[in-house]
Amino acid sequence: ERWGSVQIRAVNYERKAGRWSAEAALFIPSVTAPSPVTTTRAPTTTRVTRGAWVTEVKTSLIDDLDTIIVRLAADNTITSWLGLESRPELIFNCKDRKLVGFVNIGTSLESDLSWNTSVRLRFDKHEPTRVNASVSTDSNSVFLPDPVAIINQLLDAEEFLIEVAPLKTDRQVAIFLPAGLGFHLPKLTKTCGVPKPTTTVAP
């Protein structure tokens, strides 16, 4: 006999005082829960290209904050001690309203025990400046000091050179042609507080 979803079944019996008695047990049917549906959502990414510069805006799913990545490929390549060629990239990364500028050489760099290396920077035909810069933990990138000042100099320059020391080989120069940076500057200004240029900059 069934009452709703509960089944009553006699499981044991014995004769007592001329009567049959039964001990009842309740059996509740097992129910298998459906497997949860798993969906994968990636951060929203917007990519804008103008001139040789590329801007990527990645919006976090957890807090809706934007990460701005502005990058420019070098006009030449660097050769490692193994004879492999790589094209450096000049990158400005704005995350959590903090701006970082670096050049990804694409091959390991010489550094001291403090992960520092000596590089020389040159804008157009001005005198080169030697700076002591930090090297990334993978040894492939060198961080630029004062990225806001670098951006302001790039806005007025036709050419930017950085001389680096790849591992086990002669020092080499990466050449960047920064024309078009002005078009991408508003994203960095809005998200990372990069000051607007004091002079009009052609996009």
Q: What tags apply to this protein structure?
A:
203 residues; mainly beta; six-stranded antiparallel sheet; four-stranded antiparallel sheet; 2 helices; 15 strands; 44% strand; disordered N terminus
Bin the helical content: 10-25%
- Given the structure, what is the number of helices? 2
Q: Rg, please?
A: 33 Å
Poorly predicted ranges (pLDDT <50, ≥5 residues)?
1-28, 199-203
- Global mean pLDDT: 82
Strands of the widest sheet, in order across it, are: 4-5-6-9-10-13
Please tell me about this protein's structure.
The protein is mainly β and 203 residues long. The protein contains two helices and 15 strands. The strands form four sheets. It has a six-stranded antiparallel beta sheet, with helices on one face. A four-stranded antiparallel beta sheet has the order 12-11-14-15, with no helix packed on it. The longest helix is centred in the last third of the chain and has 12 residues, at 181-192. Residues 1-28 and 199-203 have low confidence and may be disordered.
